[in-house]
Amino acid sequence: MDQPAPTSQPGTDVTPPRLRDRLTIPVLASGGILMAVMQTVVVPLLPDLPRLTGASAATVSWTVTATLLSGAVLTPVLGRAGDMYGKRRVLIGALALMTAGSVMCALSSDIRVLIAARALQGAAASVVPLSISILRDELPPERRGSAVALMSSTVGIGAALGLPLASLVVQYADWHTMFWLTSLLGALGVTATWWAVRESPVREPGRFDVLGAVGLAAALVSLLLGVSQGGQWGWGSPRVLALFLAAAVILALWWWHQLRTERPLVDLRLVTRPRVGLSHVAAMLTGFAFYANSLVTAQLVQAPKATGYGLGLSIVATGLCLLPGGVTMLLFSPLSARISASRGPRVTLALGAAVIACGYALRIADSRDLWMIILGATVVATGTTLAYSALPTLILRAVPAAQTASANGVNVLMRTIGQATSSAAVTAVLVHHTSLVGGLPVPTLHGYLLAFTMAGAIALVACAAALSIPGDGPSGGTRRARGAARGARDEAMEGA
Asked: How far apart are CA 355 and CA 353, in angstroms?
């Protein structure tokens, strides 16, 4: 449950907020958008990177895999560090690592340097959970819901903005220019965060669980490496099977250690509570359902017209097709906060998952006309906004204030695992449903429809998981406001 920070009570100070205080939410939100942009800018480069770097296509794919792995490892670790040593301090450090990685990409064409730089940028995955924790500590209850909803939606907003932006730069300028631009934006983000965001006084003292961090890192690297490379190496290959076995053994040992250490990296007793555990399960399922949308849409609209269904769009046009979804996420985040305040975030999460399923139903009904493709993708993005905005609120209500960054870090990690699994599953479906077009294997429309069906079914399972979360209702701030309104009404009636 929410624990008040050891500062003056929010909302009791009648003096106007300072400029820095007014800029806290925009600065944190811009950091989340920048993080998502950094993750997507390399996507338009992937087809050309083998030629630009002299590396193989398999090696080039590590510019995406390295970011995924480091982000999954560092998100819960930096979240825990933020709870212990200061969320603002760790947030600035994560943004600085992201910016340093961008500078390295701008200065080099060596694939080894690019992969290392992209691994550094994975630290930015912790920006959203750290920022949400800061908002909980610093904002009064009546402002917290909408701010957290906006912060959670920045992932989709940044992804939708990053793809067309990067495509334009790649098409009309040297590809290093893109990383110089993101380096400048990163430096501005670090400076703005240092200036506008105050350090939260809410801490959880103790010694950092180094052994737990190393164990979790080893387990996640083994698991996600096997999932992300299974399609390329073969799901039954000795390497993939060894990785999955290593992940299971290390995770079991890590779980045993976490239950016995005094200050664990992840409080598993908290995680196993239904309100927290089911929220994490719903996050993983929603991440799976959400990621299939952008992954499949980009391939579908770029497919050659000779397939009978493809539109043959350019990379820039593809990015513009996804842009309405990003705008929708920005517009619908306040609605998500209002639904959560009145009906509870559990209802918002379930509604979001149901809307995602409806979006995929539209994709199944018609995936040939461009306007229907955009409509279906936008509906999925709308549902993602509702679901992703509700997840942090569920976590904030279920964990102590001193553990919000680490708990939200685990929630973001579960989304990442869902997205990685979605990528592997969608790839497996499309690989098994191909036809030759111009002598090259291209996924069939039936393969895409199967991918949509799979993602829609997972969204329905996420809806069921959300509805099974116990003990959720309107926010404490809303209950207090309703109580005050009833009291004022009763006093007025007595006076009359």
From this structure: 5
